[in-house]
Write a structure and sequence with these properties.
Blueprint (H helix, E strand, L loop, with lengths): L1 E4 L5 H13 L3 E6 L4 E6 L8 H4 L4 E5 L19 E2 L5 E2 L5 E5 L6 H14 L3 E3 L17 H14 L2 E5 L3 H10 L2 E4 L7 H8 L5 E4 L6 H13 L5 E5 L17 H8 L4 E3 L1 H5 L2 H14 L3 E5 L17 H17 L13
Parallel strand pairs: 7-8, 7-14, 8-9, 9-10, 10-11, 11-12, 12-13
Antiparallel strand pairs: 1-3, 1-4, 2-3, 5-6
Bound molecules: phosphoenolpyruvate and manganese (II) ion (MN).
């Protein structure tokens, strides 16, 4: 059930409703909206008596939730959530969030070289795995703590926000110290203990769609995170497994408007894992922005042929500049913007 507060309800009234909900043994999730605050209730097994809450000062109405998810749905919050990372970097607003960088952090020089080029082109967020979930245990697994240190340095020196993956519960403590956004990878979309742990984090979470996950499963995975109190979740379409064998994955761009109809969470697209092939990254990026995605996460490498992971799908910095030029024009048609780049010496 959702408790819709009146538009002029005071913060004391909102607190009092939350306390009442908690005294009933449930968890209260106050979510401020533009016109009014809605309070989601979780932890109840059966229906809740609306009359117990409707009589409290400041309460407008109590509405039952028709969907299996309570906190990620638009029923709770009509407008799209904007995740503010500070320094003017927001995800879900007018400006598109462009996250770019290598699949994996390989060494300091590699990370700095790529950061300099993507930031000059207009990316305000830097990606790079320090912990890599690899299909083979013999493939490069990432630099772990050393990789996180390099990422933190890149963030400071290039004025970029850092996105990196936590592959298990144990790695979250370290990742949340160095990263601005914790990525939960496709293979972990239903790792429920990891979802609960990042749900307790003070960092926003980038949740990638599982390789065979339905839209409802993606939203329910996000619900795990919100139910623990972390409302700052960004969804990511990164391609799913289908019978199509011309592409590493099938990038399901039709999920973008479908998610946007149901959920207030921002959603971005990963055209790199979505296609697996360098020459398809720009065309699918254009399509992703045209369909209404809130941003992109793109793998870029200055020497893709030498990359320790995902070289085939990593675009060159010059191609990334081209990508930005093209999506800027498409963004303009939709009333959205892309940040202008700035040069920072390597
Ligand atoms: C990645 O971003 O490098 C990655 C491993 O992504 P995914 O979880 O989507 O495969
Ligand atoms: Mn990768």
């Amino acid at each position: 059930m959702l408790v819709m507060m009146k538009s002029h309800a005071t913060s004391e009234e909102i607190d009092a409703v939350c306390r009442k909900i908690e005294s009933m043994g449930y968890k209260a999730h106050p979510i401020p909206g533009i016109t009014r605050t809605a309070i989601g209730i979780t932890g109840n097994q059966g229906p809740i008596k609306a009359s117990l809450l409707e009589s409290l000062p400041g309460v407008g109405e109590c509405v039952p939730v028709s969907k299996p998810y309570k906190l990620v749905g638009r029923e709770l919050k009509e407008e799209t959530t904007i995740i503010d990372l500070g320094d003017g970097v927001r995800i879900g607003g007018t400006e598109l969030a462009i996250i770019a960088g290598p699949c994996a952090v390989e060494n300091r020089d590699q990370a700095r070289t790529i950061a300099a080029s993507v930031s000059a082109a207009g990316a305000r967020l830097f990606r790079g795995g320090a912990f890599k979930p690899r299909t083979s245990p013999y493939s490069f697994q990432g630099l772990a703590e050393e990789g996180l240190e390099i990422l933190a340095e890149v963030g400071r020196d290039f004025g970029m926000k850092i996105v990196t993956e936590a592959i298990d519960v144990e790695s979250v403590d370290l990742v949340e110290q160095s990263a601005d956004i914790i990525q939960v990878g496709a293979r972990n979309m239903q790792n429920f203990s990891l979802l609960r742990r990042v749900g307790k984090s003070y960092r926003p979470v980038l949740l990638k769609r599982g390789i065979s996950a339905t839209l409802d499963e993606l939203l329910m995975a996000a619900e795990y995170i919100l139910s623990e109190g972390n409302y700052r979740v960004i969804l990511c379409e990164r391609g799913i497994r289908t019978f199509a064998d011309h592409s590493r994955n099938t990038l399901d761009l039709s999920v973008i408007p479908a998610v946007q109809r149901l959920s207030h969470l921002p959603i971005i697209v990963d055209p790199s894992h979505g296609t697996g092939r360098r020459e398809r990254v720009i065309p699918l990026s254009r399509a992703a922005i045209a369909v209404g995605a809130d941003g992109l996460i793109v793998e870029v490498h200055h020497q893709p042929e030498l990359a320790l992971s995902d070289g085939n799908q990593s675009i060159h910095p010059s191609e990334f500049s081209q990508l930005i030029k093209e999506i800027r024009q498409i963004a303009g048609v939709l009333g959205r913007t892309v940040a202008t780049g700035h040069e920072t010496p390597v």
